[in-house]
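Posting here for the record, re: flavin mononucleotide.
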Amino acid sequence: MKIAVLNGSPKGEVSVTMQYVHFLERRFPDVEFKFFDVALKIKKLEKDDKAFGEVINGVAAADAVLWAFPLYFLVVCSQYKRFIELIFEKNAISAFRGKYAACLTTSINFFDHTAQNYINGVCDDLGMNFFGSYSAEMNDLLRTKERKRLKAFGELFVRAIKDGTPAIRNNAPLIMPQVVFDVQDIKPVDVEGKKVLLVADNLADNANLQKMVERLRQTFSPPAELIQLKDIDIKGGCLGCLQCGFDNVCVYEGKDGYINFYNNKVKTADILFMAGAIHDRYISSLWKCFFDRSFFNGHTPALQGKQVGFVIAGPFNQIANLREILKASIDMQHCNLVGFVSDDLGSSSEINAALQTMASNAALQGKVGYIQPPTFYQVAGTKLFRDAVFGRLRVVFQADHRYYKEHGMYNFPQKYYKWRMINGILGMLMKIPAFRREFFKRVKAEMIKPTANALKRTE
Ligand SMILES: Cc1cc2nc3c(=O)[nH]c(=O)nc-3n(C[C@H](O)[C@H](O)[C@H](O)COP(=O)(O)O)c2cc1C
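Prediction output follows.
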């Protein structure tokens, strides 16, 4: 049996993820694992059809494909994303069709599920038999229990390939919107001096996107600034070198235009719109590159306080996973999400109305400085990063450590001495049945008691 391993780490062989695949390789000596460093070699694969053809021939000759990759900003890295785009662009789908597939990720378990959903969607679109996903925390290989679990996953995958077990499809095929968008009824929106920036990847890609962006731009008075990522000199994707973790200085600093663009344009905007078309089950790899390269800010909310909206062309409303990824990304940045407008939401006049509403909401919510409260994404994500940076990631992410200290983000619950005392005393008393009965009799009333004072306050 042959398994083609599509390595999605920009670090190539020197990758944490690849060690997990080597573990499987050792446990299953009868299986031939063929490795393809597609993320590392993306520039060559883009330009050199022969090199791309070799990967595709490797896939065609295999019984199954293992998509093995690290998490990058809730999905795959931009280089891997580009490889997936090339499969469709270069008509290589037939090599994948009907093949078994599995997904193996390493990460710190921050949105591993959305990355896996993405690959599942891509596999379904390629007509593959998607067996399932395995999420390894990056240190799992050091634990006996986790090695056993990974081995079991390998066994089940190999058995499914041998038995020809049919897969369950999780994603219905995408239906492209047919609407032709035409600009109507612009009502100028005054942002009272706030800076509005519209960032698109490449407007020449999609006629509806171009018109929606122009419509939104003209809705503001004065018109919003528009910048296309294709016009920014971006030399390449994030390399995963982690050097920025020390002092927020990226190895690309001074070598391309991304950091200047991010610091001087994106960070200084009050209202930010991101615009792009759907490519497979995400937006473009160029947009992914934008997100990945922002890693020089570490795990901090570098865009805090902005109003952010999205303009998307394509079947956005059919891809709940993408909505979750974008919503969570904005939540993690402590921004206010003013909306998603896509050209699959209805007729041209409905899209016009939605763009108008999004513009007015951004202006009004920006004016009052409204930022929606954090949801599960930010609450849980912040705790996850807090624990990781305080613990074993601190040496690498020293800039995050300083930021977390300065901003009171090391808010571990064991520091709440008052509550530790109350819990200790009440915990003991709750062991007494009569006290427990009385406690539950009064619990509802007691729960709203502390709010009584807050209700009297005027602020
Ligand atoms: C730019 C960048 C973005 C990352 N984003 C995520 C993420 O969204 N979620 C997560 O759990 N880990 C994230 N990580 C951590 C990596 O996924 C993790 O360290 C992985 O094991 C690295 O694997 P590799 O050595 O095979 O590249 C990120 C790392 C980098 C460098």
